[in-house]
Write a structure and sequence with these properties.
The protein is an alpha/beta fold. It folds into 2 domains: 2-16 and 24-221, 3-Layer(aba) Sandwich (Rossmann fold); 246-335, no CATH class. Helix content is 33%, strand content 24%. Helix 3 crosses helix 4. The longest helix has 18 residues, at 186-203.
């Protein structure tokens, strides 16, 4: 069952530049169609500027789409008003990237966790609020006595745990985790990822996990959606995508993951140049300017995301490249 359905999603931002305030349109998300299955962890990956965080904000209705639809349990999120919107806010919560700025520095943790309980009327007395706060602190691995402190009295990893506790306070069913571990050191990242996995099972959560760290994604996600310049290029179960990436961009991302063994040999697919500006995206396939397999037809045709077998989809017109992906044959094609 699909909890969230994204259909032909577009998001443009208007940016002013120059002395006379010339307006330019930035295509942050371009015709993305995607489903989030109830109970799964779906990861959005890609370089900076690929549109990952924008999709997360649109799904949580922190921003409105330029066009397209986002359905939550079959209901158009953009049409929600009043009490229905308040219920959606309760069911959908967001964990932001920076734990240093996402917490109110002027509020004690106790007050920070009590506020959503009062807004959504999930506790009827001070004793119930206190009991719930103690439970939330314990759920994220923090001593309940620490609830009397201010955010600046915690470490980065502890602050992110507090952000998770705040998101869980209203008993959501869907969490958007936007680069939730990228601001943390490696050891703390592992702790927070393990915590998210534990809480996902305990609270029966559905998670949209946004990250550029594929090593983290491999350990936490059920499926992976690969984005580039606002377009969806590949969608596959995590194990299959890491074992045999179909799209050249996915293969380049996976080949860049560091290998801890210094003697291990790894075939790299190195991309040339920088990601193009979203104000002036390339014609046809947006990845063609950096793709070693690009041909003239790639500039003339916008490739559609299509099934390539099983539960896998890719947006590439080169059937020969997809068929030879992650094999010695593909290595010879790039040499």
């Amino acid at each position: 069952m699909n909890l969230v359905e994204i259909r032909n999603l577009h998001k443009q931002f208007v940016q002013k530049s120059g002395l006379f305030g010339k307006r330019s349109r930035v295509n942050a998300v371009n015709d993305v169609t995607l489903d989030v299955v109830q109970g799964e962890v779906l990861a959005l990956v890609g370089e900076s500027g690929s549109g990952k965080s924008t999709i997360g904000r649109l799904v949580a209705r922190l921003d409105d789409p330029t066009s397209g639809r986002i359905l939550h349990r079959g209901v158009d999120v953009a049409a929600l008003r009043g009490r229905d919107l308040l219920q959606f806010r309760r069911r959908t919560q967001m964990i932001f990237q920076d734990p240093f700025s996402s917490l109110n520095p002027h509020m004690r943790v106790r007050h920070m966790l009590a506020e959503p309980l009062r807004i959504h009327r999930l506790a009827n007395s001070r004793e119930e609020i206190t009991s719930r706060i103690e439970y939330l602190m314990g759920a994220v691995g923090l001593a309940p006595a620490l609830a009397n402190r201010f955010p600046h009295e915690f470490s980065g990893g502890q602050r992110q745990r507090l952000s998770i506790a705040r998101a869980l306070a209203v008993e959501p069913e869907f969490i958007v985790a936007d680069e939730a571990v990228s601001a943390l050191d490696v050891s703390t990242q592992a702790q927070v990822v393990n915590l998210l996995s534990k809480l996902k099972r305990e609270f029966q959560l559905t998670v949209l996990f946004i990250s550029h760290n594929l090593a983290v994604v491999q350990n936490v996600a059920d499926r992976v959606a690969v984005l580039y310049l606002g377009r969806l290029l590949e969608l596959a179960p995590t194990e299959e995508l890491f074992a045999r990436p179909a799209h050249p961009y996915t293969r380049a991302l996976l080949s860049a993951i560091p290998v801890p063994d210094p003697n291990a040999r790894k075939q790299r697919l190195v991309l040339q140049g920088e990601i193009p500006s979203p104000m002036r995206p390339p014609s046809g396939c947006v990845f063609r300017t950096r793709c070693p397999f690009a041909v003239q037809a790639c500039a003339d045709t916008v490739p559609l995301l299509r099934n390539i077998g099983g539960n896998r989809s890719a947006a590439c017109i080169r059937d020969d490249v997809i068929a030879a992906s992650a094999t010695p044959e593909l290595d010879r094609m790039t040499s």
